[in-house]
Amino acid sequence: MFKPQNLIKSLQHQDIKLQNEFSILCWNVAKLTLKSSYKNFIDLLIKNYDFDILLLQEVKKSISIEFDLSNYSYILSPNIQTKRHVFGVLSAFKTSCESELSLLTKKQELKYATHKVSLITHHKVSNDKTILMVNLHAINFVNNSDFRNELNYIYTAIKSHEGAMIVAGDFNTWNLKRVQFLKEFTEALSLKKVEFEDDKNLKKIFSNSIDYIFYRDLELTYSEVINSKNISDHNPIIAKFRY
Question: Mind listing the pLDDT tens digit for each residue in 140-176?
């Protein structure tokens, strides 16, 4: 019942390269994507910020109804599927997608024994170069050693990419061991962390941030944490880059 099926995707921008300046919204939406409060809020964010890329975690989609994602191509990588809904990470974009790879965690979490999932996509920025993006939802209810192994699994999948890279999502780094493992992961990939001038709205557990955007070979031009007014237990994080 819970075993996910194939990726769900709609690619409408295959002839469009990612522009030199682009913006990203990263947000764990806590399975609220079918609620009108979420729809109204994200529509307003898109109107105000005109994001080029959306990286969403814990997305819930009805199997029988198409997404209403105005003017975005998208790929939904599921980690759970029921008779009526699929759940997972969703990457949406106004640019071509050259390839995609879904990575289910090797380990399963407690209770329902479900996996977490990450989605790797490549987007063309010039005739011979692509930017790699990882929409990551890290595994949670496992021991620290398993958490580290799952990060290494993702590292192995992306380490050979040359050039610009963004890794963003909900990393579930709620203890210091996990924070250290994430630091090792990002250092091995030469990634920088997006810093926020005012991070009071950034999701934290035991004083540890769990939502991040990391990048390399890009210039960060803007960052912000948005108060989602209790729509989700996470708040949206925003970054703008220049290539």
Answer: 999 999 999 999 999 999 999 999 999 999 999 999 9
Residue spans of beta strands (DSSP E) within the chain:
8-10, 21-28, 53-62, 73-81, 85-93, 99-104, 117-124, 130-137, 165-170, 192-193, 204-205, 208-209, 211-216, 219-225, 237-242
pLDDT per position as a tens digit, 30-65: 888 888 888 999 999 999 999 999 999 999 999 878
Q: Which position has the token pair 């963004």?
A: 166
Mean local confidence (pLDDT), 11-20: 95
Q: Are 96 and 86 in contact (CB under 8 A)?
A: no
DSSP 100: E
DSSP state letter for 124: E
CA 61 to chain centre: 16
In which element (H, E) is residue 197 found?
A: none
pLDDT in tens, 103-114: 999 999 876 678
Query: For the chain, what is the domain count?
Result: 1
Tokens coding 187: 């250092």
Asked whether residue 31 is assigned to any structural domain, the reply reads: yes
CATH number at residue 19: 3.60.10.10
Three-state secondary structure readout of 4-59? CCCCEEECCCCCCCCCCEEEEEEEECCCCCCCHHHHHHHHHHHHHHCCCEEEEEEE
Residue 125: CB atoms within 10 Å: 20
Q: Which domain holds residue 42?
A: 8-242
